[in-house]
Amino acid sequence: MLHRTLLASLLVSSAMTLAIATPAAANSKSDRAREAIAAAEAKIHTAETIGAGTDAPRDTAQARAALASAKEDFASGHKDPAIQEAIQASALADTAIGISQQHKDNAVASAREDQRATVDAARDQVAAAQGQAVSAQGQAAAAQQQAVTSQQQAAEANARADNAQQSAAASAAEASAARSAAELAAAQTPPAPTVETTVTTHQPASGYHYTRTKVKVKRHTTTHVTPAHSAEVTTTTKVTPQ
What pLDDT digit, counting tens, does each position of 40-71 carry? Predict the structure, then answer.
């Protein structure tokens, strides 16, 4: 919108300047001076509206001074100097407008460049954040897998510990039973052996003989005594351990 207004103002001013520069029989010098002064005043107003007083302060001030001189000469009846001064004021206003517009174009280009740089930086930051997120997801997956492996290893270790504990308990029970059996065997007195004694007496004259068997549990050696008479006595001892 501002560009259109400026272009329209410049076209109008240029047309007015050309009309003034071209002699016309229908217009007097007074009319030409008024038109030149009006055109210069319109351009200066446009320049000041778009900020030329800040962007091009010297050109704007010179244009305002030339316009003032043109008005003063026109009021004094000096038509030709008033026209030339009005034309000079318009040219200075055009210069100020051009400088101001160039500043604005540069500012817009700089703002766009900054915007592109900001967008690029934001895009880079987003890409970096996405990369960090992917890396974090990978680390989380690795940690989860490691946790699963640790749990499996812990379960296997617990199973081995349980088996070892059961084996130790069984070994302790067997050892306890063995000790109990040893203590019981040590506490019991071994049974005495069974001694079977057979005594056979034979009388040669009568041919009579008899046998006597006696079973007795003894812990000492048995002594056999043979009678002095002529009878033949045979003693047999049999020891049977228990």
Answer: 999 999 999 988 888 889 999 999 999 999 99
For each successive 10 residues of the chain (242 residues), what is the average pLDDT? Answer: 49 49 60 96 93 88 95 94 96 94 90 91 92 90 89 89 86 84 74 61 54 51 48 62 61
Query: Which pair of tokens denotes residue 88?
Result: 């000079």
- Rounded to an integer, what distance in angstroms lies between the CA atom of residue 217 and that of residue 235? 17
Q: How far apart are CA 191 and CA 194, in angstroms?
A: 9
Reading the block at residue 157, the tokens are 């270790």
Domain ranges of the chain: 2-117, 194-240
Q: What is the separation, in whole angstroms, between the first and last Cα of the chain?
A: 134
> What does residue 84 show for φ and ψ, rounded to 5 degrees?
-65, -40
- Nearest Cα neighbor of 58 from 101, 85, 93, 86 is 93
Residue whose C-alpha is closest to residue 48's, from 34, 39, 37, 59: 59
Q: In sequence order, which ranges of the chain are alpha helices (DSSP H)?
A: 2-21, 29-49, 52-55, 57-75, 79-187
Here the tokens at position 83 are: 């026209």
pLDDT digits (tens, 9 = 90+) for 69-80: 999 999 999 999
| C-alpha span between 172 and 155 (Å, rounded) | 25
Helix, strand or coil for residue 238?
Answer: strand
